[in-house]
Amino acid sequence: MIVAVAFACLNECCRPCHGCAVAAVFVTVVPSLSSDYCRRRFESAPLLWCERLSVKMSPSFGCAAADVASFPTRLHRRLLGIYEKGFERPSPIQEESIPIALTGSDILARAKNGTGKTAAFCVPAFKKIDQDNNVIQVVILVPTRELALQTSQVCKELGKHLQIQVMVTTGGTSLKDDIMRLYQPVHLLVGTPGRILDLAKKGVCILKDCSMLIMDEADKLLSPEFQPSIEQLIQFLPANRQILMFSATFPVTVKDFKDRYLKKPYIINLMDELTLKGITQYYAFVEERQKVHCLNTLFSKLQINQSIIFCNSVNRVELLAKKITELGYSCFYIHAKMLQDHRNRVFHDFRNGACRNLVCTDLFTRGIDIQAVNVVINFDFPKNSETYLHRVGRSGRFGHLGLAVNLITYEDRFNLYRIEQELGTEIKQISPHIDQAIYCR
């Protein structure tokens, strides 16, 4: 993540010179600035970030003495949002993608859920933005309303000291309010494809100055539901736009889109294993009528910070949530047929710890980042490996440990075997005693 900040600071404090931006990545702190001086100026910041953010400022960079002296202060301001979010070091996807994004190259990046993809594209997006130019300069597309709200919040938190104006827009909300908001300065727009396309067609969302398009959860965005809207939306962007695509999985549909719209993209693949490291997976063979009893047993035996319980239909979500409440456990539920305001409130309250358990459909599998979730239960087993991967990814976020428990009926046994084979993972039969050390940390 720091790499982008280093570039941003260089652009502020170094006079233009050939190769300055390229030479500034991952080098050691200057002879011109003593390490003691830097350490004093950054004593409130994680030292690891400062060491990695080092910039070799030699006379060849054309830096005046006054520029050098002001560098730490400017750098510290740029890093405040990162420090306040509690980041101690850049994740692998951030280290791999940010330097490439800063060169202006298109990117096709594949990485596990919970590894910091949002910051990996937010930080270079900030670098693209000129705060003095009150036009939309970056668009971030996501497939769900909940993910749009979460992503916009992360953007605001990371960029809170940079005077970057962030707006979020999704279907199911007031179009009039969105139009009124667009009459005010907006630098970065986060939203779902259909709503942004609608605003662009109405002429109120002007994208001719948008130099960066980011697609998060790109596999879902390139499904038949969204792809036509995205292809129309691209026509509103300038020809020299930069496209960054991030997801945990990339189906075949991605290749055709890449060939048509990305220019010599840099491919990043950090998916050495398709399942998340740090997540222990179990299954329990049960009859359908035994599932609620089994769930009650899990609640009584597991050390749950927060849990997400997945069902395969809206009706089963509501029925199960009612059963869990009757058993005496706190429980929220969320699904696509709820009113948007209600969904927003449930998501906000659960994220803030107002309830321990959430029952939901696959609406909640895409990129939602709630680090307190340490247990995922598939009350209904998913039909395919991609859905399984995204569900299980709700626990063990960003290096934390997690536990996934799958309730398997006789009819699910073939799906269980197939998903194990496709993901190259082992889902073990659950034992009577589960060591808390494997999912609580």
Automatic annotation (TrEMBL):
Its main location: cytoplasm. Residues 278-438 form the Helicase C-terminal domain. Keywords: ATP-binding, Cytoplasm, Helicase, Hydrolase, Nucleotide-binding, RNA-binding. It is found in: Cytoplasm. It is an enzyme of class 3 (hydrolase). The keyword Hydrolase applies. PROSITE patterns: DEAD_ATP_HELICASE, HELICASE_ATP_BIND_1, HELICASE_CTER. It catalyses: ATP + H2O = ADP + phosphate + H(+). Its EC number is 3.6.4.13. GO terms for cellular component: cytoplasm. ATP-dependent RNA helicase involved in mRNA turnover, and more specifically in mRNA decapping. This is RNA helicase.
